[in-house]
Amino acid sequence: MASASLQFFAFILALFGVFGDIAATLLPHWKVNADVGSNIITAITQMQGLWMDCTWYSTGMFSCTLKYSILSLPIYIQAARTTMVLSCILSAFGICITTVGMKCTRLGGDTDSKNNACFAGGICFILAGIFGLVPTCWYTREIISNFLDQTIPESSKYEPGGAVYTGFISAGFLLIAGVIFCSSCFKRQQGAWIYPPKQHHFSSTEQESNAGYSLKDYV
Length: 219
What we know:
The chain has 219 residues and is an alpha+beta fold. It has a domain of 151 residues: Butyryl-CoA Dehydrogenase, subunit A, domain 3. Strand 3 and strand 4 form a beta hairpin.
């Protein structure tokens, strides 16, 4: 019962991780630059993401521009696109697989099959967490290095946006969920290996007596 509750808790964490992963991939808030001019009317907030760049004016206007060209983007943005999409795909596969392998569901067949499915889902969550953690760390490093560069003007410097923090938290949720799923299945399999099911062996005299008894019944 405790293992089933732990798996359900890990599944909830994985759901939060999947939704946060998708939101971080699509949102344009990877880095934000607030450029406030001498007049409040000219105050703007520029946001850049993996797929689009958006500008928010103080007048209430909001405009976005899609990044159509892939080869013209910096290498860290190209890598972030690829790894975040892979993270979303792997986490979605993990949700489907662990739904079959969880103990609180009636899918997946026998116990061994459910344990294998649960372990495979945990591996998907761990890989999804790694793929989500790498681009956020790399992207944050680029933002910090550009911010500390004295040759870059103040108006062109950015800070990490909400999508970066969402990516960090989602990757942590996916990693924790994957470790819980894998450890729960591993402990169960290890217990089965250490303590195999006992088999009752009949001695030769018992077998002969049973055989004789059956023959007498038919005489």
